[in-house]
Amino acid sequence: MNLSTENTLAQPVGTTLDRYIMRKQAEFGFATGELSQLLRDLALAGKIVHRDVNRAGLSSIIGSMGQHNVQGEQQQRLDVEANIRFIRTLTNGGEACAILSEEEDDLIQTGNVQGKYVVAMDPLDGSSNIDVNVSIGTIFSIYRRVSAVGGPATRADFLQGGRAQVAAGYILYGSSTMLVYTTGHGVAGFTYENSLGEFFLSHPRITIPATGPVFSCNEGHWFDYPQYVRDFLLQCKQQRMSGRYVGSLVADYHRNLFTGGIYLYPPTAKNAAGKLRLLYENFPLAFLIEQAGGRAETGEGPVLDLEPVDFHQRSPLFIGSPELVARLLSETA
Ligand SMILES: O=P(O)(O)OC[C@H]1O[C@](O)(COP(=O)(O)O)[C@@H](O)[C@@H]1O
Ligand SMILES: [Mg+2]
Ligand SMILES: [Mg+2]
């Protein structure tokens, strides 16, 4: 029987994430498989959270926990549940020696002292959308530790700077669940196939269009925005661009990655440094966007050049199509 008949009869299911990671690992002669295993562990935790997100309305994991995290934000049950799932999976996986999470004040030493990597994560992004069935996500950033293997991780392992990330990505729990990541060699996207319980390669080389029709920001903060941001947004409207804002960073970012566009979270009266967190929101998304041909800026320079000093520090974020970010920055001049 010839191949095309075979393929018609039994349509190939595609490349699984596992197989893709193995293939990529083989490309890097020095790779030892630990980073590959860590990526697989993140995908496994993502599958579990995908399951829980999908049936959230039927279970007890909706609603608030009635407590606040280190940023003073009300924690949702699913924030805490996702946090536990990722910490447990990464601890059992053995490759991450420590974790920094949005939902925890300080580092979590996993006990995997032989582990060579540390993970900074936003276990559940878009918390305000959890109970209303709007797309939410998980964001992660991976560094090779600088502290001695065999001992506990240190602050320095997490404060190496955005350009020291060895991998970064996100999982989007939307109409379909997708995992998108980079190890510094381009950006690839995988779609989750429920019935087979596998992520399959669906977007081998993601690049962002140079410009696009969309601007995304919370205009409810209009009166708090710096003048240059207001001027830029007025221009977008005069050009009849479309305003799109889901209110989940991962979802807004993911849309703009494919359509072209710009996401803005400027400094506001409430948060002079913006709302979004540098280590587990802005750094990983900036690494991805630069790998996809886009730009990520703070208004005072590239996000990836910012010196991190604190685990939960915030920074402004202007991210997306390079021509739109350049136009925004031209307003600051
Ligand atoms: O309600 P605002 O001010 O528009 O903020 C929305 C932004 O805050 C976030 O929810 C912050 O992330 P968390 O949900 O992980 O805390 C982003 O996902 C989103 O883009
Ligand atoms: Mg977030
Ligand atoms: Mg979060």
Can you tell me about this structure?
- This protein is of the alpha+beta class and 333 residues long.
- It folds into two domains: 17-203, 2-Layer Sandwich (Fructose-1,6-Bisphosphatase, Chain A, domain 1), CATH 3.30.540; 214-330, D-Maltodextrin-Binding Protein, domain 2 (3-Layer(aba) Sandwich), CATH 3.40.190.80.
- 32% of the residues lie in helices and 23% in strands.
- It has nine helices and 15 strands.
- The chain has an eight-stranded mixed β-sheet with strand order 4-3-5-6-7-8-9-10, with helices on both faces.
- A hairpin with a 5-residue loop joins strand 1 (64-68) and strand 2 (74-76).
- Helix 3 packs antiparallel against helix 4.
- The radius of gyration is 20 Å and the shape is globular.
- The N and C termini lie far apart (66 Å).
- 46% of the residues are buried.
- The model has no long low-confidence stretch (mean pLDDT 94).
- One magnesium ion binds next to strand 5.
